[in-house]
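pls design
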């Protein structure tokens, strides 16, 4: 090799080393009870960022979803104890506490079995990196709940295929220390018009539809959430008011809650919490 080429090749090799992502260090899942997964890319290594404090509501304050709460909590507690448990899909009406219930069940499991579960949030936009995340978690002895909030797929989106093989059907399979929880407003994770278009436009329409909606079959638990009635809405509001010491006469509390829900055009746990925040602010009470 000519001597004048050696420095040039060394510079090229150094540049390639800088472009290549560094090897991801083994995660320390004992550093926190919750983490956010960042897939990395373009020279940035994937990593798990610890979350010092999870924005969770105590499970006792979640009203109107008693059956859903019992099912998910039982599944989570079994997993925390090292027993078999199912992946869970929480689907249905907006603002009825789907993501709040996942975080509350995780907190309750750790309260009963300290340090048993780590909650790992993966964003919808990074779902294609789920196999990489599972490779990282596979090396840890700690049990992990991988959580994706507001999971759904559009017509040209093929990420659901990666999720299908990870949940059930891949050679490696899901690591025994990992459970996958997801929330969605759609029961089959895809818009109805997408399913109908597939049925009408494909040569074998029904087969095409089955291939797409079969993703939801990978979840052992389907937990549905439905819009609440007025009495349930009142129970939510009154529960929050009692928990945070907002001394308001019941008649006034209900009247203002009704007015608030009418202006929002909906009744849900989210609307109840927003009303409580407004009420506490007007009363100059810190939550």
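designed seq:
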């Amino acid at each position: 090799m000519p001597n004048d080429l050696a420095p040039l090749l060394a510079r090229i090799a150094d540049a390639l080393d800088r472009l290549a992502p560094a090897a991801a260090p083994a995660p320390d899942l004992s550093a926190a009870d919750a983490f956010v997964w960042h897939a990395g890319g373009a020279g940035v290594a994937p990593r798990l960022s610890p979350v010092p404090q999870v924005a969770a509501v105590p499970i006792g304050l979640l009203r109107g979803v008693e059956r859903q709460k019992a099912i998910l909590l039982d599944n989570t507690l079994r997993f925390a104890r090292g027993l078999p448990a199912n992946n869970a899909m929480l689907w249905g009406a907006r603002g009825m506490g789907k993501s709040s219930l996942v975080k509350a069940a995780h907190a309750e499991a750790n309260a009963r079995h300290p340090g048993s579960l780590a909650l790992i949030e993966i964003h919808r936009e990074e779902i294609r990196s789920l196999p990489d995340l599972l490779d990282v978690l596979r090396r840890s002895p700690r049990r992990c709940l991988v959580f994706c909030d507001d999971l759904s797929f559009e017509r040209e989106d093929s990420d659901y295929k990666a999720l299908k093989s990870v949940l059930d059907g891949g050679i490696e399979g899901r690591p025994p220390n990992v459970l996958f929880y997801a929330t969605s407003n759609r029961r089959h994770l895809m818009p109805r018009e997408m399913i109908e278009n597939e049925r009408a436009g494909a040569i074998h329409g029904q087969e095409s539809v089955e291939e797409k909606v079969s993703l939801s079959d990978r979840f052992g638990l389907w937990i549905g959430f439905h819009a609440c009635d007025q009495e349930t809405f009142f129970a939510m509001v009154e529960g929050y008011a009692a928990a945070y010491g907002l001394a308001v006469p019941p008649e006034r509390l209900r009247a203002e809650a009704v007015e608030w829900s009418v202006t929002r055009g909906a009744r849900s746990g989210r609307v109840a919490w927003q009303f409580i925040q407004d009420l506490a602010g007007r009363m100059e009470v810190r939550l």
